[in-house]
Design brief:
With 512 residues, the chain is mainly α. Helix content is 61%, strand content 6%. It has a four-stranded mixed sheet with strand order 1-2-4-3.
Length: 512
């Protein structure tokens, strides 16, 4: 296998494959991005862009900054905030090419093609915290690969190591899974490149502003990211066989049947490539093992592994025998084509097609949001949601932040940062609910309560209307529970501020 053909021209057929895959997948993503309704997570992150900050309740701030940028430059619309994820595969393909062309231009092109043919890159148009994480992670790896190809530790090499660190710091400001990327770097340098540990040290030094910003934010906001990612979301973590089995099945799907078959059939070639492409191998093996261990107690989300996704296809492109690259691409294309056919079939359905399914109420909420709000809105009435998903979707439609009434869950606790419930003292509040509420659950917090019934496209929904909101009762009955459940901040963590605590008890750290 030749892997040093820097001057080799790309075959015409391969160039055409790249053009077709890049253009057709872009057109499909554009179509989905303008036609698919906003999801709960997207609507939640939208408000991070409306209120830019150095951090947010669940995660570091990068996606909020990105959405704020898109709103400021292209306008406040769904297509504009989705544009980064629509263009992301093209940017990642360019980064892979830049990183790998020095090793072998032809195989670098195959790596880009394999990645572009993955079904996820045809369908994913949802803006999430993973969007900037993937972008900065791949840029960091690309800069590191370029640095590693420098024969000497010259100025260019030092600059590339520094650039890789800056990008890693940006990835950290996107999501904490960037730590896994940093750990992969450490494994690579300790095992294979100890003579360049100085380069790793510079990389880490240039990445430190990212964690520094995040630590400063957490100190002034009750360690919200740490409480969510380390404590609150892991209280019930325990081993179940379904968790690692789900992880294995998910990875088999993401890798795609064609690529998985090729990897198994030509496993000796993969082992040989691991010796010649050590950095790529570490970027595949270390995250796979990390998430495999984590899957013993946690259900690994599909999006958790996406910042490492491109490297698996790149490794495969450099590992397979030359004569099997086209066959692998064809298999990937067929699998992607099946997904496109499914999407085309879904777009041929109507809302009524789904009437008999369990998803129908959620579909109506997503496609008939404005109509539902028109029914429940009234002058002088404050609207709230029962959970963050409906509250975010309704708020996005109104372009007005909608709080969640009640204790809520451990995730999406941006209300704790933004909402001062004392401002609603004495007001009339309508809480939009999917199921008929029990009045006794809400009566303690209002002078009077009643249930309002509505219907949209055959789906009943309700509003609990409470007049004369009693903030003091809500503080004791709801906010007190929130404090005990979600703000049990370890005393060893230093704090300079906590918006929720300061409103709740008037102190940075409330007595427990």
């Amino acid at each position: 296998m030749s892997q040093n053909q820097d001057s080799t021209a790309l075959p015409v057929t391969l160039s055409r494959w790249l053009l077709a895959a890049g253009l057709l997948s872009l057109l499909l993503r554009l179509w989905i991005s303008v036609s698919f309704p906003v999801t709960g997570d997207e609507a939640f992150f939208y408000w991070w862009g409306v209120y830019p900050d150095w951090g947010y309740s669940d995660h570091p701030p990068m996606v909020g900054w990105l959405i704020a940028l898109m709103r400021a430059t292209l306008g406040d619309s769904l297509w504009s905030i989705r544009l980064p994820i629509v263009l992301l595969p093209l940017a990642l393909g360019a980064a892979l090419w830049w990183a790998l062309k020095g090793a072998d231009r032809v195989r670098a092109a195959w790596a880009v093609l394999f990645f572009w043919l993955a079904p996820l890159n045809w369908l994913n148009t949802l803006i999430t915290t993973d969007t900037p994480l993937i972008f900065w992670s791949v840029l960091s790896v690309a800069a590191l690969m370029r640095a590693e190809r420098r024969a000497q530790m010259d100025r260019a090499a030092w600059g590339l190591y520094a650039l890789s660190g800056v990008f890693l710091g940006c990835a950290f400001l996107s999501k904490y899974f960037s730590v896994v990327l940093g750990f992969s770097y450490l494994v690579y340098f300790v095992l294979y490149r100890r003579e360049r540990l100085a380069g790793l040290a510079l990389l880490v030094l240039c990445a430190l502003p990212g964690p520094a910003i995040n630590i400063a934010y957490n100190m002034s906001h009750g360690w919200s990211n740490i409480m969510f990612n380390v404590y609150n979301r892991n209280e019930d973590a325990h081993f179940e066989w379904r968790k690692p089995l789900t992880y294995i099945g998910m990875m088999a799907y993401l890798v795609t049947p064609a690529a998985l078959w090729m990897a198994v059939r030509y496993r000796q070639s993969l082992l040989a490539a691991a010796r010649s492409q050590r950095l790529l191998a570490c970027l595949v093996v270390v995250p796979l093992l990390f998430f495999a261990l984590l899957s013993a107690k946690k259900v690994i989300g599909l999006h958790w592994v996406l910042s490492f996704y491109p490297f698996g296809f790149a490794f495969l492109a450099f590992a397979l025998p030359e004569g099997k690259l086209k066959a692998c691409a064809k298999g990937l294309a067929v699998f992607a084509g099946l997904h496109v056919l499914v999407v085309a079939g879904l777009y041929m359905t109507t809302v009524d097609t789904w009437r008999s399914t369990k998803l129908y109420p959620q579909i109506i909420r997503s496609y008939k949001t404005a109509e539902m709000l028109q029914q429940v809105t009234a002058p002088g009435v404050v609207l709230m949601g029962e959970a963050y998903t409906p509250a975010s979707i309704f708020g996005f439609e109104r372009r007005q932040y909608m709080p969640v009434f009640g204790v809520g869950k451990f995730h999406a606790r941006q209300d704790d940062m933004l909402v001062d419930f004392s401002l609603y003292q004495g007001k009339t509040i309508r809480i939009i609910l999917a199921d008929k509420p029990r009045l006794e659950e809400f009566a303690p917090y209002f002078a009077s309560v009643r249930v309002l019934s509505f219907e949209q496209n055959g789906v009943p929904f309700y509003a609990l209307e409470g007049t004369g909101f009693n903030y003091q009762a809500y503080r004791e009955g709801v906010l007190g529970t929130v404090f005990k459940r979600y703000f049990n901040i370890p005393k060893w963590l230093p704090m300079t501020g906590c918006p929720f605590c300061e409103r709740y008890c008037g102190q940075v750290r409330c007595p427990s």
